[in-house]
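BUG-289 | component: ligand-complex export | severity: low

The export step for zinc ion jobs runs without errors, but we want the raw record kept on the ticket for reference. Input record follows.
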Amino acid sequence: MSISKWFGLLTVVGCLLGYGQMASAQQSRPDDEITNLAEHVYLFRHHFHQSIVITTPQGVIVTDPISSDAARWLKSALTTLTDQPVRYVVYSHHHDDHITGGAVFADTALFVSHVAARPKILAAADPNTPAPTLTFTDRMAIDLGGQHVELIYTGRNHSDNSLVVLLPQHKLLFAVDFIPVETVAYRTMSSDYPDDWIDSLKRVEQLDFETLVPGHGKIGRKEHVQMFRGYLEALTTAVQEALKKGLSLEETKQTVRLPKYEQWQRYADWFPENVEGVYRYFSQRAARP
Ligand SMILES: [Zn+2]
């Protein structure tokens, strides 16, 4: 079924849930929302964060719980979709703005992450965020109730432990914070690895999917991966040229422009910060022995 058709169904779900305040939804979105992406697959949105949920006759697979409030809302909302418990919570990466709140599901769920996320989650020691009980290095599959879910590590990008969730049956990919759709990267990209990131996107481009669900913002399609790689390549090339010319950080921020991307979201405010982050990354890397 097409995405637009499923979105039509969503309004119905919102009304049934009674959380949607649908009367005012024309102007303001509800804080929390579940929408149908494909059969058994839902988008869960809490303010500006989002994740996916897969329901099956043998249990539910939740990805980022987002926050304790969000997770409590989700747990309640799920009872209108299924009588099955949450069996897995999959953390996209270790950042607490995406993975806090999983404790709500700890009575029934296993927690899954990339192997490099686990020590960081343990170090944060947040009682609302259970440590992963299952980790993997390159690839892991979850088969539950007829749904095949692949967790894949494509290398360092926005973090050193970001996984993607691939649903081959639905040709859908969920990726958080490293493939924004027609949006520049977040602020100064402070936890990021800009050069590895480009290789990571090339690996994502090898995967078989059509729909791209990011952790923030609008849903895209596979071509948005290549578009964002094009942006990162242009950004890193321009900044490295400025570094070669010996330009200071301020001079670089003044002169580097990428007009091709001016229409993208957050270009006006975050693009100069992207330039700054990439400048610092490459100048620090050059300074290393
Ligand atoms: Zn993040």
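Assignee comment: Attached the raw record above. The chain has two domains: 1-176, 178-289.
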